[in-house]
Specification:
By secondary structure, the protein is mostly helical. Helices cover 69% and strands 1% of the residues. The protein has one domain. A two-stranded antiparallel ribbon has the order 1-2. Helix 1 runs antiparallel to helix 14, helix 5 runs antiparallel to helix 9 and helix 6 packs antiparallel against helix 7. The model has no long low-confidence stretch (mean pLDDT 89). It comes from Pasteurella testudinis DSM 23072.
Amino acid sequence: MLYLEFLFLLIMLYIGSRFGGVGLGVVSGIGLLIEVFVFRMPPSSPPIDVMLIIIAVVTCASILEAAGGLKYMLQIAERILRRNPKMVTILGPLVTYTMTLMLGTGHAVYTIMPIIGDVALKNGIRPERPMAAASVASQLGITGSPISAAVVYYLTQIIELPGYGHVTLISIVAVTIPATLAGVLALSLYSLRRGKELKDDPEYQRRLQDPIWKERIANTTSTTLNEALPSSARNAVLLFILALAIIVVIAIFPEVRTIGEGKAISMGIIIQMMMLAFGGIILLATKTNPQTVPNGVVFKSGMVAMIAIFGIAWMSDTYFQYAMPSFKAGVTEMVESYPWTFAFALFAVSVVINSQAATGRMMLPVGLAIGLPAPLLIGLLPATYGYFFIPNYPSDIATVNFDVTGTTKIGKYYFNHSFMVPGIIGVVTACFVGYTLAYAII
């Protein structure tokens, strides 16, 4: 019966993934009802901690965007790319990775992707090379960001258990940043020579024969450099960086957050407080109109992600808490013999549910319940990014649409798409480096 119920869980996740975003969350709500009232599973608690972290980070990042700070960051990134156009396949992914590292979300990639494509095309570089790599890099950076919901959830859950108290935010990102950066560099190096040159690419040459496509290609100019930004945009970025710096300092010196009877405030709470407070500071310092905040890309995508996680995590957690006594024995035996196989479980779940935070919320309790060591859990954290496998994630779809040359594509057989090989290289490299580093650091 447990296997049938698990199959039901996967089917509901698959149906929800067909709709994506909000659809994924509310379809999971249907699954939750069936679990409770048909399968008679006791409902678990909703993932309030993860949702609050997402709300706080997205709110601050959205105010940064509304204040012009995101566009200021884009202008800096564009100057770097246009000064080194021949290096766009290396620099493009590094730019999107860095933006994700700072913002805690990969959805800012939509604004820089047309610029990466424009730089590549104007320099005779196959746009698929930097664009596909940049899309994958933007998501790989999530597990390296100290303010991402995935990283903070791991931190808040792991340190609560006996024997895991030595784990800190710094020790986690000391593993995940080098690991994911190594993954980004590896997939970028692979991308340098992938695919045919533009002069030999049949799809590009076909489009050049089509008058409509030829005009679009000839007149493609994406830039943010011709827009003058107020000084408040720069100030917003500096304040946001200050917030990140303060979070890191507090993580390094736990005595700063020790209040009352010697008990330290959790870093999850600290990040929520800092992001909320600095959202207010940026709003006041830059005199940003709060009514414009919900209109930005970051706010919309972040709130959609929160609803998706709300449903996914609650439905999944209800099943695993119910099934854990039976599930634990089989998984423990396999993972004890081959610890790295837990990465396959993380990856497979991520393919279905399109969220690293939701994957962590679903699978980390399983890993903790069967007694997996902290270095293993943290070293394999990049495996929570598997949703490049099925090309239905918004950033991948947007990247395909931004490439006017047609070189970035979803293949005829669906799985032979532009993001598959860079994604596999990035995740495998990051897990290998992360696994090695974690046992040396933690």
